[in-house]
Amino acid sequence: MAALLTGKVAIVTGAVTGIGRAIALEYLRQGASVVVNYFPDPKSEEGYTSLQQEAAQDANLLGVSGDISVYETATELVKRAADRFGKLDIFVSNAGVCKFADFLSLEQDLFDFTVRTNLNGAFYATQAAARQMAQQGKGGSIIGISSISALVGGGGQTHYTPTKAGVLSLMQSCACALGKYNIRCNALLPGTIKTQLNEEDLANEEKRKYTEGRIPLGRTGVPEDLAGPAVFLACDLSKYVNGAQLLVDGGLFVNLQ
């Protein structure tokens, strides 16, 4: 089968762990040149080194560290991608944080940090990517990694679920704003996926079994489960898909009753 993203240039934020990493690796396998963003700390640097080792030796991969919640990080990220590869075709807003907390004792710092990273960062980076794509005049695909949490509540996620609803809404509004530039904007809504964000929660055997019992496919997801849908939304197979939301949850949402 021919590669689906040959000649394309993609940026994936938060891409040295979890879902972002899986998407970046699949984009490389599908022929894209990929720029990954990651937080500037030693653990993330190790993650990027590991990503380089896992990627093919001839992979066109560039790492750019930076805090995505800072406006300048987004503009620098897009500039580095365009300088290195000459253009930008695909942008995946994936970077996010999720720390469970009780609503009544939720600290302001945690709320502000979550909103800055998940929503402000998504807005800044999406805007920077869209500006580059519009300037090129050849369209593009923007994918926001939202969550099933955009559609349902979570008692320990009162600071998190609004940000994921915001990412979904951002993609819907950007689909309207950017359609005239042939820039498509869509959202992926993962269900329960085994990543570093929820590994502690899923370590509870009783809770894990309960969660899996609610999922019609009988298992929690893995990051690679998002890679195929992310390729679909990035490539020409979805050239008339715009403003859509695609649940990748094993059927959990339709079984929440």
UniProtKB/TrEMBL annotation:
One example GO MF annotation: quinone binding
Keyword terms, alphabetized: NADP, Oxidoreductase, Rhamnose metabolism
Similarity comment text for this entry: Belongs to the short-chain dehydrogenases/reductases (SDR) family.
Protein name, entry field: NAD(P)-binding protein
GO biological process: fatty acid biosynthetic process; rhamnose catabolic process
Pfam families in the record: adh_short_C2
Provenance organism: Viridothelium virens
SUPFAM superfamilies xrefs: NAD(P)-binding Rossmann-fold domains
